[in-house]
Design goal:
Phosphorylase Kinase, domain 1; Aminoglycoside 3'-phosphotransferase, Chain: A, domain 2; two-stranded antiparallel ribbon; 15% strand
Length: 334
């Protein structure tokens, strides 16, 4: 099958499904791919007809393949539906793909207008009025995520601190290049392992600037639930605060938008639970190590020839930057 014929079949199948979902719809328009992943595709399109246009997003894995550690797309859709029903700002899932749809694995959701590019949110005049309140908002929304009744969720993996650390150590030791700072971080974390969780809660897992849709009034939706799991709620607060997600605003640790205290105040106001600052610090170091190991694995991919793209190389070079972040975090200077 040629590429053109495959694209035509894809468009026809998507249009047939969209027309079945939206009463009075006549056609799809403005179809464009938003992501370029090898296994996961994200498409934006409009469903037009009867004087109304509905914006939609398709997330799909055409061959059913996903990266290791990510949820099946049907499970991700279940998570999104559960959190939205619990009051967390999230897109509306309109349909989970079935084999008869001819589109692979995935789901359709309503497109939410707004901005996801972090540098624009941090700098553009459009967000100047709301920017001082965003760290507090993100804290409150994290609290809402962690308050979701886990009995209403699909089966999710437990990834507490010991399991996460064990997995990162295994990946680090499997790499060809020694990284003494990673060894130091592993030892630092082992020596400060927090007490076991009493009650694992829903964790987004990638809660950060870049996975949130913002409007001039604030947060509109939290996106990308593909590594959601059960674990320690301090993980989400910590991950938002590691340096890569500050996008140059290094003195504003809460995603480059505000202080840790603003983030924690939002969380505490929404949950009534006091944030454990030391536990957050532990998770900041662990999250920074997680990012570093991920960057270092990109080095292995690039050198092996599995992926020689410029994007892969740019991520790979950040492993050294991450070592500085780890040293600052462990020394208490961040």
């Amino acid at each position: 099958m040629t590429t053109d014929s495959a694209q035509l079949r894809f468009r026809d199948a998507l249009q047939a499904l969209a027309l079945a979902l939206v009463p009075g719809a006549a056609r799809i328009e403005a179809l464009r791919r938003l992501s370029a992943g090898a296994t996961l595709e994200t498409w934006s399109f409009d469903v037009a007809g009867a004087g109304e246009t509905v914006g939609m997003i398709l997330r799909r894995a055409p061959g059913g393949l996903r990266a290791e550690g990510t949820l099946p797309l049907s499970t991700e859709a279940e998570v999104i539906r559960a959190v939205a029903a619990a009051g967390v700002p999230a897109p509306e899932v309109r349909w989970v793909l079935a084999p008869a749809d001819g589109l692979g694995d995935g789901f359709l959701m309503t497109r939410i207008p707004g901005e996801t590019i972090a540098r624009k949110v941090l700098r553009d005049a459009e967000f100047a009025q709301v920017r001082p309140r965003l760290a507090h908002q993100l804290g409150a929304i994290a609290g809402a995520v962690h308050g979701v009744d886990v009995s209403r969720l699909p089966q999710l993996a437990l990834r507490d601190a010991p399991r996460t650390l064990e997995g990162l150590e295994r990946r680090h030791l499997g790499m060809s290049r020694p990284r003494p700072v990673f060894d130091l971080a592993l030892r630092w974390l082992r020596e400060r392992m927090p007490a076991p969780l009493e009650k694992p809660q829903l964790i987004h897992g990638d809660y950060r600037n870049g996975n949130v849709i913002f409007g001039p009034e604030g947060v509109r939706a939290v996106l990308d639930w593909e590594i959601a799991h059960l674990g320690d709620p301090m993980e989400d607060l910590a991950y938002l605060c590691i340096p890569p997600w500050r996008f140059g605003q290094i003195d504003l640790p809460a995603g480059g938008l505000g202080t840790r205290e603003q983030l924690f105040e939002g969380y505490e106001s929404a949950t009534g639970v006091k944030v454990d600052r030391e536990r957050v610090r532990f998770w900041e170091v662990l999250s920074s190590l997680r990012w570093g190991v991920g960057c270092a694995s990109m080095v292995e991919w690039f050198r092996s020839g599995r992926d020689t793209s410029v994007e892969r190389a740019m991520i790979a070079r950040r492993a050294s930057e991450n070592e500085l972040d780890l040293l600052r975090a462990m020394s208490g200077r961040d």
